[in-house]
Amino acid sequence: MSRPIDILLVEDNPGDVRLIEVAFREGKIANRIHVAKDGVEALAFLRRETPHEDSPRPDLILLDLNLPRKGGREVLAEIKEDPELKRIPVAVMTTSDAEQDIVGSYDLHANCYVKKPIDAQEFLRAVGLIQDFWLTIVKLPTRIAEGQGP
Question: Which end of the chain offers a freer environment for a tag, N or C, measured as fewer CB atoms within 10 Å?
Fold first, then answer.
């Protein structure tokens, strides 16, 4: 791609945000990370509602399940039900390894489910692997023009 990859990170933990930003900064592909701290902000960003009228359509969404105001499951369901958003890959990245969360995420059409490692080095490695897979191996939909669907 000739332009940087836009990633929407939906994460309320500032430490996890910093680690993910570091991992993507060290990656091979130019990218821009946009952070939403809760589900309401994430959906406003995706729908280009105030104050996100000029937000780019992300190429990838990294979504935590445990969020304030509107949880990750609700956000995932709304993304995958929306004809303008449903093709954006959503990688769930969360602390839960509960089978109900894994199955529930895939039932809502998550594109992958990753349990966040506790160790910082393993966390960076996991994000690096997500980046390698989604930004170098996978072919993502090309945007026809900025401002249109994915």
Answer: N
Q: Over 80: is that where the pLDDT of 147 sits?
A: no
pLDDT band at 48; cut points 50, 70, 90: very high
Gap between the Cα atoms of 16 and 69, Å rounded: 19
In this structure, what CATH number is given to the domain that contains residue 48?
Answer: 3.40.50.2300
Query: What confidence tens digit (pLDDT) does each residue in 106-118 have?
Result: 999 999 998 988 8
Number of Cβ atoms within 10 Å of the Cβ of 66:
14
Q: What is the greatest pairwise CA distance in the chain? A: 40
Does 55 fall in a domain? Answer: yes
| Residue 144 falls inside a structural domain | no
In a domain, 63, yes or no: yes
Closest of 22, 20, 64, 21 to residue 42, by C-alpha: 64
Domain residue limits at 79: 5-137
Q: How many domains are there within the chain?
A: 1
